[in-house]
Amino acid sequence: MHSPLLIAQLTDPHLGTGPAFLGGRIDTERAFQRAVTHVAALQPRPDLVLLTGDMTEHGRPDEYARVAAALAPLDMPIYAVPGNHDDSHTACTALPAYMPVAQDAPAGRCCYHIQLKGLHCVALDTSVSGHAHGVLDTPQLAWLANTLQACSGLPVLLFMHHPPLPSGIEAMDACSLLVGSEQLAALIRQHARVQGILCGHLHRAVQMQFAGVPVHVAPSVAHQIALDLQPGASLHAQLEPPQISLHRWTPLYGLCTHLSYVEPYGPAIAF
Ligand SMILES: [Fe+2]
């Protein structure tokens, strides 16, 4: 029997936004460094860190160098997928240890499969160069079908940038369509032991259910999108206390997800 697997999920740091971003009110690099410091101090220590995309604002090599530098204090395994603000090829080239593209991955797709403490984690690349929406194309879906088949009967966790369903925040949903989501749902239904899907992109914590499995969208470690469910509401950012997602997985109970504030609110108070 494996001990619990603890996964720290960090998403959407957007390194490279520059000092004028959001009126100069958020330093994304500093926010990412704080989140990393928070993860480094967690007890128990996470077994694994997953980055669910938009590591950078522009997908430039110098921005990935800053991502790598910011992650240097962490000594646990780190794995990442690209988001719509990333450049998949540049990211894989700059961060090969964090994005170990499978030998049988379709050309141009940063997808891979790792296994830790009995949980099979499958990274999917939903990025489309130059576009905000996501795509799981036929070659990647075929790769996923083969990968799930190879994991038949074993617990699998998927992680990717784009959530597979709309959130009701219309302005985000307009740039969040995941082409191929119906085919993804069919594959998940065929594979009974998918434990969940971890995503980013929405810049706030959202829970969904897709093809019978939980979807967790993690909040950004930097800036959030305002929670506005009114039809036609415009897109606006909101500065909120930054959080990471902390997933505790056990073979018996599956995934249990917590949100962990990066900044403390004073010492713990005994009852
Ligand atoms: Fe983002």
Question: Could you please describe the fold and organization of this structure?
Answer:
Strand 4 (112-116) and strand 5 (119-123) form a beta hairpin. The mean pLDDT is 95. The longest helix has 14 residues, at 28-41. The chain has one domain: Metallo-dependent phosphatases (Purple Acid Phosphatase, chain A, domain 2). It is α/β, with parallel strands linked by helices and 271 residues long. It contains six helices and 15 strands. Fe (ii) ion (FE2) binds next to loops. Keywords: Hydrolase, Iron, Metal-binding. It comes from Lampropedia aestuarii.
The share of residues in helices is: 10-25%
CATH level-3 fold name: Purple Acid Phosphatase, chain A, domain 2
CATH superfamily: Metallo-dependent phosphatases
User: Hetero groups bound?
Assistant: fe (ii) ion
Instruction: Identify low-pLDDT runs.
Output: none
Q: Tell me the span between the first and last alpha carbons.
A: 35 Å
